[in-house]
Design goal:
The chain is of the alpha/beta class. The protein is built from 5 helices and 5 strands; from the N terminus they run E-H-E-H-E-H-E-H-E-H. A 5-stranded parallel beta sheet has the order 3-2-1-4-5, sandwiched between helices. The longest helix is centred in the C-terminal third of the chain and has 21 residues, at about 120-140.
Amino acid sequence: MRVCVIDGRGGGLGSRLVAGLCSELGQAHNIVALGTNRVAATAMKRAGATQVGVGPRAIAGTLPTVDVIVTSLNLVLPGAMLGEVTPEIARAILGARATKVLLPINRLRLEIVGAGACTLETLITESLSRVRFLLSSVRQV
């Protein structure tokens, strides 16, 4: 199975997700990291991603090959992350057949009803747990 983490800006969230997935999943699954910029991609590579890509073209070209996408809600909001999220990136993520695990982190004054105020650590832990569940349920089929 291929799990993809997408992040931008400095790659802080993405690198934590990649490290957590590497720890949770071990070598049984490929962890693909896609950055909206080179800094984010480099941070996720250092965290243990097995494959790395940068920019809208890499994101659009890679997403059809992955099974699960883990990223911030920001990545489906064009213009987010100080403009790093292009409409092409948002379309590629939303149009991908992969299951999407979105952390409700945003700074655009967007409220998601039912998504309570959680710490970043809680969101990361919950998303890692969800990916582990998704991958284990696929193996049983």
